[in-house]
Structure formats: structure tokens, C-alpha cells
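Subject: sequence -> C-alpha cells, single chain

Hey, anyone have a minute? Need the predicted structure for the following. Not urgent.
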Amino acid sequence: MQSEKQIINTSGTGATAKVPSEIANRFNWGAFLLDWIWGVFNKTWIPLISLFLGIIQYIISMKISIYFNNVNSRGVSQPIIIFNLISFCILLLFKFWYGIKGNTWAWQNKAWKDSKHFHTIQKTWAMAGIAILIGLSLFYIFIFFICFSFELYKNKMI
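Reply:
Had a minute. Here:
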């Protein structure tokens, strides 16, 4: 007689799959940080919304920039800043949605050996997302200082 409850692996069986509570009740940092890339590798297509919204944001932002630069020689700041701020907030809301629902979607859409295997892979995604975030942050800081130094040099301040 077996005293332990037999756990049935329902991963990869679709939206009707029963997701274990230790998986469903955790935030998925990989889905939050790497959204559409994470989605493709976890057979979860909803995060592709972020990719399409990002492309649309870029196109509209360029159109706003071209329009206002043609109308006004002072350049564009306020319309693009407002548009990009609104777009950023919308994309951030989507990212939180992916983080909250990511584990459930990944469990339902992809077959996993067991919950331990699932957690190992999702932890790897989270670490990759953090590494990319840190790397890009350092890169942007480096570029900022190079541009700032060039501006100082150009103005003969250094």
C-alpha cells in the first residue's frame, strides 16, 4: 500500500492541464524579462504580443518624429516622449501579465519530465534574463559616458 499521493504529470496537454500549485503560484521572471523569446521556446504564443507591439511602437514613433520634424524645425520631444511613455506602460503591464501567468502557460503548452525539471529550466530563463538586463544596462551606461565625454570634448570642456 502506497501512502504517498501519486502525482500525475499533466504538462503539455493544453489549456485543460491541471497545473500543480507549486508551479502556478510562482512569478515567472523569465517570462517577465524575456517575454516573446521565452514564449517561443516554451511554446507559449501569447507573449508574441510584445514583439508586435514593440514593432508598432517603433513604426509609429518614427512617423511622429518625421511629421513633427517636417512641421517644426525645433525638433520633437514632447509628442514622442508622451507616446513612448504610454507605450512603455502598456508593455510593462503585459510583462507583468506574462510573469504572473507564465508558469501556467509553460506547464500547459510544453511537456516536462516533472516539476523539478520545470523549475530548473525556468530558473535558467530567469538567470538569462537577469544577465541580459545587467549586460544591456552596463552597455547603455558605457554608451552614455562615451557620448557625454564626446560632447564635453567637442565643446572644449576637457
